[in-house]
Automatic annotation (TrEMBL):
InterPro entries given in the database record: Fumarylacetoacetase-like_C, Fumarylacetoacetase_C_sf
Residue ranges annotated for the Fumarylacetoacetase-like C-terminal domain, each copy included: 78-281
Name this protein carries in UniProt: 5-carboxymethyl-2-hydroxymuconate isomerase
Pfam families: FAA_hydrolase
SUPFAM superfamilies per record: FAH
Organism phylogeny: Bacteria, Bacillati, Bacillota, Clostridia, Eubacteriales
Keyword check for Isomerase: yes
Species the sequence originates in: Sulfobacillus thermotolerans
Length: 307
C-alpha cells in the first residue's frame, strides 16, 4: 500500500492516480505541529490493514493531481544516515576531480552513522533555500527506510521485521570541515516522498534502483545491491546505538554522481517501485547573522575535510 500526507496534513492512501482520504480514521489527528499522531499510526497500520484495504477499494477518491503532497513522515523522532556507503562514491570524492582530491576518503566502516534533525524534513514540490552563497552544496540521492515498530539491538536477520516501508530521500550536504550533523542538518536538507510504499510491495530490498536528474540532466543512478552496508545491516547497526521508534527514517547512503546544486535548480529523484520526488532550490540564498557571516563563509572545499 502507498501512504501519503497531503494538503493540510491530511492522510491518504494512493490508489492508481487518486487519493483516498483516511484522515477521519487516524487517532488524535491534528493539522498542526508536532504531527505526533503519524508515529503511532504507522505502528498500528498493519494491525488495521483489512480496514485500510476496504477503504482503498470503496472509499471516496479525489484525483492525485488535485492535491498537494507533503512529506509522508512530517516529524520523525530521528533521521539516521549512512556516510559514504558506496565504493564508487568514495572513489569519486577522493579522485583527481573529486571534492576532496588527494584525500583518503573513509567509509561507513570508519565513520559509523550520523543524525540529521527532524526539522531538515521537506516534502514534494517544496523549495529549499541554500544556507551559504559562497559554499558548495551537493545533492545525494538515497532510499529512505521507514521503521515500523520499536526495536533495540536487533540482528541483521531480524532487521527486516522492523521495516514499515520505503520512500525517496535526498541528503543535501554543504561541503566543509564541520561535522556532518551540522553540514547536513539545515532546514529542508532531507526531502522525502512522494509517499511511503509499504514493505510488502518491495519484494527485494537488496535490489532497489533509483536515479536523480538535476534540471533534466541525469546525475546519479544507483542500486541498493551496491551498498557497503546493506539495509538490514544499517538497521541492525542503528538499533545497537539507539532505540528505533515507528516513523524513524534511515537514509541508505548515496552512489556515485554526487554534484553541486545551485540557486534555481530542480532536482528530480525517481525510485523504482516508489515514485518521483521533485524539489526545487530557491533562487536566493539565506543570509547568516551579521556577526557570523564571515565565519560561515570562510571555509572552502579546498581544505582537508570529510565527505
Amino acid at each position: 500500500m502507498k501512504l501519503a500526507v497531503f494538503d493540510e496534513a491530511r492522510v491518504g492512501l494512493i490508489v492508481d492516480h487518486s487519493v483516498v482520504d483516511i484522515t477521519d480514521w487516524v487517532p488524535d489527528w491534528s493539522p498542526r505541529w508536532p504531527y505526533a499522531w503519524m508515529l503511532p499510526f504507522i505502528a498500528q497500520f498493519d494491525a488495521k490493514r483489512a480496514q485500510w484495504e476496504d477503504l482503498a477499494a470503496n472509499g471516496p477518491r479525489q484525483p492525485l493531481d488535485k492535491v498537494h503532497l507533503r512529506a509522508p513522515v512530517p516529524m520523525p523522532s530521528k533521521i539516521i544516515a549512512a556516510p559514504v556507503n558506496y565504493v564508487l562514491h568514495q572513489q569519486e570524492m577522493g579522485g583527481a576531480k573529486g571534492v576532496y582530491a588527494g584525500t583518503q576518503v573513509k567509509t561507513i566502516e570508519d565513520y559509523g552513522l550520523f543524525l540529521k534533525p527532524s526539522s531538515s524534513i521537506a516534502g514534494p514540490d517544496e523549495t529549499i533555500t541554500l544556507p551559504f552563497a559562497e559554499r558548495r552544496t551537493d545533492h545525494e540521492a538515497e532510499v529512505g527506510v521507514i521503521i515500523g515498530r520499536q526495536v533495540r539491538n536487533i540482528t541483521e536477520d531480524e532487521a527486516e521485521q522492523a521495516i514499515f516501508g520505503f520512500t525517496g530521500l535526498l541528503d543535501l550536504s554543504v561541503r566543509g570541515p564541520e561535522d556532518r550533523p551540522y553540514r547536513k542538518g539545515f532546514d529542508g536538507f532531507c526531502p522525502i516522498g512522494p509517499w511511503i510504499v509499504t514493505k510488502d510491495e518491495m519484494p527485494d530490498i537488496n535490489h532497489m534502483t533509483f536515479r536523480l536528474w538535476v534540471n533534466g540532466a541525469l546525475r546519479q543512478e544507483g542500486c541498493t545491491q551496491d551498498m557497503i552496508y546493506s539495509i538490514r545491516r544499517l538497521i541492525s547497526l542503528a538499533s545497537y546505538q539507539t532505540t528505533l521508534f515507528p516513523g524513524d527514517i534511515i537514509a541508505s547512503g548515496t552512489p556515485q554522481g554526487v554534484g553541486e546544486v545551485k540557486p534555481g535548480d530542480e532536482m528530480h529523484l525517481q525510485v523504482d517501485g516508489i515514485g518521483d520526488l521533485i524539489v526545487r532550490v530557491s533562487k536566493m540564498t539565506a543570509t547568516p547573522p551579521k556577526n557570523m557571516g564571515d565565519w560561515f563563509n570562510k571555509f572552502t572545499v579546498a581544505r582537508t575535510v570529510t565527505a
